[in-house]
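Example 5.3 — L-proline trans-4-hydroxylase
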Amino acid sequence: MGIQGEFTCDPTAFKVTPEMIQSYNDVGYFLVRGFLSNPELDKLKTAVEHDRFFEKGFGLADGTGKESRLVMWRHPGNDVTGMFARSEKIAGTCEQVLGGEVYHYHTKLMTKAARTGGKHIWHQDYGYWYKNGCLFPDMMISGFIPIDRCYKENGCLEILVGSHKCGRIEHTMKAGQTGADLDRVAEIRKICPHTYVEMDAGDALFFHANLLHTSGDNLSDTKRWVLIPCYNRKDNNPLYEHHHPQYTPLEKVKDSAFLECQNFDDLSGKMFNRPEEDKTVDGNAH
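Solution (predicted structure tokens):
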């Protein structure tokens, strides 16, 4: 199951290493096996697997009659997911990788139901974020934390290794999603290895905003849910207001605050996104 840029850690004493940062710069990501401890994973799983979260979501069509669902919020808040997004373990890691103060750009809970969950087409996160007025892709990062095991049959992440060095690819609306120019993607695939990133629940992938990625249909009998906190550096404040926040100081907390948090119900302050506010998705497409 090993891939390039893969690391292991003690989840109770995680530290960013120079080798992780080198991998991020060289191939566009680094993968940490066992990033979350079992108690941390259990807590996060309990927090998101609740109707109060899922009812805030909307469908993203993939153009084939299937869809995945997306729940997205602007600010961390003070619940369990907020404490996780504010923790040194993830927010502090992103600051070390990006080399400066970050703020919470948004968090996404992306869900693919068993047998019916649709694909995410080839794209770069900066393909969306460019349209939001963010100038510097090198100052933006995503963390990808599976709530369930991700493998080929249930639509795990697929990447083009090193594709972040190709710069921004032109993106247009395809079905309900914003997708990259597939002719350009096909040429990049000839040079940058296409890799399936199979992950266990509680692993973590940190990746560059220009890394090309996709994921397939969920053909399995298991759901595939993933939490994706995204961060932007303070000095990359978007040019104009949009459906994600302008620079908002992030009040980081110790990792212990996440594990100690018992707030599973109060979602105030998170500001859940609605598809009609977002020009980079179409929640009405089928």
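Remark. The first helix runs from residue 18 to 27.
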